[in-house]
Amino acid sequence: MPELPEVETIKRDLEKAINNKNIVEVCVFKPKIIKEPDIAKFKRILTGARFLKVARRGKLLILKIQARNKQVLFLTIHLRMSGQLVFGAKSPSSRLCFKLSDKKYLSYNDQRLLGEVRLVHDWRKLKLICAMGPEPLDKTFTREKFQKRIAERTGKVKAVLLDQKFIAGLGNIYAAEVLFHSRINPMRQINTLDNSEIGGLFRNIKKILNNAIICRGTSFSDYRDGKGNRGDFFKKLSVYGRAGQACRRCKNEIERIKLGGRGTYFCGRCQR
Ligand SMILES: [Zn+2]
After folding, report:
1. What are the sequence ranges of the domains in the chain?
2. Rounded to the nearest 5°, which phi and psi values hold at 53?
3. Which residues have beta carbons under 5 A from ligand 1 (an ion)?
4. Whether pLDDT at 227 is above 80
5. Which segments within the chain are labelled E, that is strand?
6. Out of 59, 99, 224, 242, which one is annotated catalytic?
7. What's the gap in Å between 232 CA and the centre of ligand 1?
8. Which of 41, 52, 91, 271 could make an S-S bridge to 64, C-beta 3.0–4.6 Å?
9. What number is the average pLDDT over the span 128-132?
10. Residues 49 and 88: beta-carbon distance below 8 Å
11. Which residue, among 59, 95, 105, 92, has the nearest Cα to 217 in the 3D structure?
């Protein structure tokens, strides 16, 4: 599933590709992915509209548009498991497709059809957004704030990191990597972390997400960037997807367990 670095990479690619371009035609092949408004209204508003800006909040892409009647709206896209948003030539597997004024296409592909597309007047009012925790790479997200949020929580540290209400944008891959670099066992109760562990966790969240953005994200299965290419960070993964292989730090075998229904990778020797 695309996490913060993947969605940020798509955002940056699309910004360059679609800003100030008009939508000439809207083709909906799988109405199921459009959650609001109805398909007729969706097409009516977007045909002839212009893309003004691309933004991201957590794992949500937010495309600011101006309709023909000058009204400003937001096209929000949650890629979920297998969604892809690709700019360029027409894609044969697209579920939703925008033909643009430069004769190129913005295609939404989604093999499993779990993604969610909405056209709304105010993205800040979406339920998902109202409940969302802070942006980890935002300057206003400080160690003090992080520590305070941890003090309010109970449960296993990995489950808390995955909770979008605690912090936005982390998913199964980066939570595993952050915990490895912080030498914290994913099963630890979050209220047992000491000050130096919390400090390490805080620094590693920022560091690993930033590094992954530089590598244009991780392609494990379905993720593609805004140009349809794979991300490079998978070469740098320390634990995720490496069950049975040697730990890059201590050579112990990386383990895989199920935690809250999710495959969880860690080194039982390095991570305590
Ligand atoms: Zn190790």
Report:
1. 4-130, 143-266
2. -165, 150
3. 247, 249-250, 252, 267, 269-270
4. yes
5. 23-28, 34-36, 50-57, 60-66, 72-78, 83-88, 94-100, 105-110, 116-120, 255-259, 262-266
6. 59
7. 23
8. 52
9. 97
10. no
11. 59
Q: Is the pLDDT of residue 220 over 80?
A: no
CA distance 51 to 146: 35
Q: How far does CA 62 lie from the centroid of its chain?
A: 12
21 as an active site residue: the answer is: no
Positive or negative: CA dihedral 172, 176, 178, 184: positive
Kindly indicate the confidence band of residue 211, based on its pLDDT and cuts at 50, 70 and 90.
Answer: very high
Do the domains 4-130 and 143-266 sit in the same CATH topology, yes or no? no
Enter the pTM of the model. 0.96
Give burial (CB, 10 Å; 0-12/13-18/19+) of 148: exposed
* Residue matched to tokens 């109202």: 130
Model pLDDT, residue 11: 97
Q: Which CATH architecture has domain 143-266?
A: Orthogonal Bundle (1.10)
2 is a catalytic site residue? yes
Domain 4-130: homologous superfamily in CATH: MutM-like, N-terminal (3.20.190.10)
pLDDT at 221 > cutoff 80: no
* Residue 62, pLDDT score: 98
